[in-house]
Amino acid sequence: MSATPFESLEKTLEKHIPPEELKEVKRIMFGKDTKTIELPQCAVEAAAERGFDLQGSAFSASVEQLRQPRIVRVGLIQNQIVLPTDAPVIEQITALHKRVGEIVEVAAMCGVNIICFQEAWTMPFAFCTREKVPWTEFAESAEEGQTTRFCQELARKYNVVVVSPILERDEVHGETLWNTAVVISNSGSVLGKTRKNHIPRVGDFNESTYYMEGNTGHRVFQTQFGKIAVNICYGRHHPLNWFMYSVNGAEIIFNPSATVGELSEPMWPIEARNAAIANHCFTCAINRVGMEHFKNEFTSGDGKKAHTDFGHFYGSSYVAAPDGSRTPGLSRTRDGLLVAEMDLNLTRQISDKWSFKMTGRYEMYAEELAKVVQHDFKANIIKE
């Protein structure tokens, strides 16, 4: 990472490339141009007062003869932690509720229907430390915890579906911890929850110290505004994970994440966009922002010097469409709200055009994968 982080890739390109060339560069890098949404002035002013990046983009679809447009607005929120990591747990949670709540208010001004927060949004991403205390104290019930109750209030107040990724304490099953996303209907009821399928064991990401792979499969939630799924963080590196949400009917797949520049930033613009193309759906990549410093040093298991921070969480949240287009990313350095308007009819239109689902050889893959997972599997290699 650069010693002086730049605001965003898009702004750097706009600063240094002539307009006509820039148009072609963006076409190649980002696909079909998205339309900038003119957001309400009250929202623009509130975002400026509250100190966060506000952007709006729209994806279009062709007009159909038999179906009306299915217009949905989603909101992605990225943010830094508010208090130091050694502040009392309840004060950290309360401060984050307040910060995210004031951004949700602006999302409501912008007509957002579904909103998603970043991974483990109520706490520092402390899973690098391998310390149990105080980090396990941030865990709470997915159904009845204070964060779920807070989100239920937001859902009812603003008529919005809320996707709330938290550290879950499963009180029914021995108070086990899980990395979980709670989905709350715009009615205010808890529609359900889904757990993180893939757990990283790379560098400072030592998450299996706290929780293991999820056991909820690839759930898709039918909301008033469309069928949604949540592919939490590390699952974005696994193409079959996206695929299984898609075959279960997801039209929008959210990817709430917490990832740092040195590790993953070159992959970030590619993975969710590729998943949108491959699975004929919309994908929404959300990443937290800033540096989080911890009291005690920890090591990465790579022989390098001990340190007290994870690295720079680079934000850059964006939405990608099934036609390969994508929105500009939010800031790399600031809190932000991205509003994206989409016509869900585009998912079937692109499926009809490219036919990836029709031409996929799923029965062949399933047969061969069934053999691969057996202990006596032999690779299909032809030798002289």
Automatic annotation (TrEMBL):
Its EC number is 3.5.1.6. The keyword Metal-binding does not apply. SUPFAM superfamilies: Carbon-nitrogen hydrolase. It is an enzyme of class 3 (hydrolase). CDD domains: ML_beta-AS (cd07587). Its main location: cytoplasm. GO terms for biological process: beta-alanine biosynthetic process via 3-ureidopropionate. Belongs to the carbon-nitrogen hydrolase superfamily. BUP family. Keywords: Cytoplasm, Hydrolase, Phosphoprotein. The gene is Upb1. Pathway: Amino-acid biosynthesis; beta-alanine biosynthesis. Catalyzes a late step in pyrimidine degradation. Converts N-carbamoyl-beta-alanine (3-ureidopropanoate) into beta-alanine, ammonia and carbon dioxide. Likewise, converts N-carbamoyl-beta-aminoisobutyrate (3-ureidoisobutyrate) into beta-aminoisobutyrate, ammonia and carbon dioxide. This is Beta-ureidopropionase. One of its GO terms (cellular component) is cytoplasm. It comes from the Eukaryota. Residues 72-344 form the CN hydrolase domain. It comes from Acipenser oxyrinchus oxyrinchus. GO terms for molecular function: beta-ureidopropionase activity. Homodimer, homotetramer, homooctamer; can also form higher homooligomers.
